[in-house]
Request: fold
Amino acid sequence: MKPERLDKILAAQGGWSRKDVKALVSRGAVAVNGQTALRPEQKVDPERDQVTVEGRAVTLRRHIYLLLNKPAGVVSATRDPRERTVVDLVPEPLRRRGIFPAGRLDKDTTGMMILTDDGDFAHRILSPRNHVPKTYLARLDRPVTAEMETAFAAGIPLKDGDCLPARLERVEEDLARVTICEGMYHQIKRMFGVCGARVVALQRISMGGLELDGTLAEGECRELRKEELARIRG
Reply:
């Protein structure tokens, strides 16, 4: 990670604006490696330097990556005038300016979501060209059939384009595990609709090589570790 301006890196943490940081520096409230910072444009290395604000240590991160277990009834958006959003679920200590959901789940769909402020990372994991697999559990209103499995593997045609081949595995009589590598609108529900079935419950359980953390209750989130980020990319 390259050195960055003190005011920029502190403002990125979400608690201050650059103007706030400038005021803090001017009154001697910011220190870098134990030395009072004299200029807001001073360069700091987030991986090596220790920064304190009013005596409290600040953990510096260029970007943040959160794993959320999304509950039903919450929309996949940064803000909404009428609905509760996935960003609203992020606790204050993990809030960052510019955080957004990397991809979306329908309002009634639950499970694994990634929230971040890193646009390049989000593009990499969401682009169909990168073929990052996403796996779901789908509860149907009728039994899972071998014909459904064959149809998914062949690539189901929808009105707005043909789906890429997908993997369907029967888990229980009316429960299927589905893995896709794209994210068309209401894709899994529409794919089953072509097969004459209705999805009554849908949960995303993995992205790439990373599975949903079973210790996270619905609505809870936590930071991802470096090795987990690598596993998401497959």
